[in-house]
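Limitations

Structures in this collection are predictions, not experimental determinations, and the ligand pose is part of the prediction. Treat each record accordingly. The example that follows, with EPZ as the small molecule, is included so readers can see exactly what is and is not provided: the inputs are given verbatim, and the output is the predicted complex.
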Amino acid sequence: MDKFIIEGPTPLIGTIPVSGSKNAAMPLMAAALLANSPTTLNLIPRLKDIYTFKKVIEETGTSVNFNEDANSMVLDPANLNNTEAPYELVRRMRASFYMLGALIGNAGEAKVSLPGGCAWGPRPVDLHLKGFEEMGINIELDQGYVYASIKNSTVEGGDFTLNPSSVGATINLVLGAVKRAEKFIIRNAAKEPDVVLLCKMLAEMGADIEGIGTDTLTIRKVDELKGIEYSNDPDRIETGTFMIAAAMHPESDLTLTGCRPEQLGKFPDSFKKLGVDFKIDGTEIRIKSTANLQPVSVTTKIYPGFPTDLQAQWATLMTQANGTSVVTDTVYFDRFSYVPELNRLGGKLRVEKNKVTIQGKTILSGASVMSTDLRASVSLVMAAMVAKGKSEILRIYHLDRGYEQLEKKLNDVGASIQRVPQ
Ligand code: EPZ
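Predicted complex:
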């Protein structure tokens, strides 16, 4: 296992290119299994989660050719002959559960392992399963596996309301419905750009989906979907992460390129209140930081609200604000595993239920800290970059899941991060 040695404090000065979205790429890869010919996907990031999902898909007999230098992937399900997604792969990466919808769509049957929990607690899939049953899919559970099957090639469909709204359940149900359900309505559907991109790609492949971009999707089955060439979105969470990282140090002047600022939802509204100078210019965002960072309390919400995937990063930033702030997570109530580690670096954070109160400004100083999950890990890297002295970030494999070439991107703009074997 590798670790990072980080010397701080360092401002971030220069330009960072944003990579393709991790969370948008995987649904597109799953959708390729529904086509009757090969699909080419562009802007696919080189991330551990992508390689894990590639393995899960190849288990089915589907060929996946990833041209890493070009960030381009060709998937051909012509030889798909195995409808199982095994535990040893699904447990590593929750999004593998999308194979349930993809295999129902492709073959009308599936045997998919239930995903494990994750660093911050249980993450149920009850809405996925209830939605498929409402659609008319036969769902059985046995020894940690979901067995899905249908009697005929199509199912009647139905009308299903997600409560709470769920990105993964929306994606899974859409994947399962487009070639199988006479008519299936998903109410309170997630509207994250990841979901919209999937629906747009499926529509271009020939799917019949009404209400794309709204919280009510109506799907009517089609018999065939054709393979196409399609581009992934840039990663909106990576974009938000680097914007926050730039605001951590008073002298940072960072430009992000290849962004889609319109996919940041309401995040820029909170960012504006920091007192940081930032400009959006097409696909570029420039952040010039300030010594007088304002405390800004935020509450996470489903899209287009403040994303839960930026919650840890924002709380970390608030350690550098001149005043006290509160960060509330209404999507995940216990996603605060980074707090004790941040306090080891000198932060003054206190968690109460699904809220963390942050006292600022605190001068952080280097220490050894432990990564626990993807967004917690990048928050510790951000803190270590402004902490005085040397920090060690252990278990950085979490980072490799979701941030392409992180240390290169940050070192290119002035950070001092060294990756060493632990
Ligand atoms: C996706 O996870 C993302 N992962 C998460 O990003 C992100 O935090 C989350 O959406 C919320 O935006 C991927 O896209 C691979 P949900 P997902 O289903 O789909 C509850 C990252 O850091 N729920 O929208 O699993 C659930 O417990 C990752 O990149 C049920 O109750 O999230 C949560 O409270 C972490 N039953 C809420 O819904 C279900 O069947 C939202 O979860 C499903 C979900």
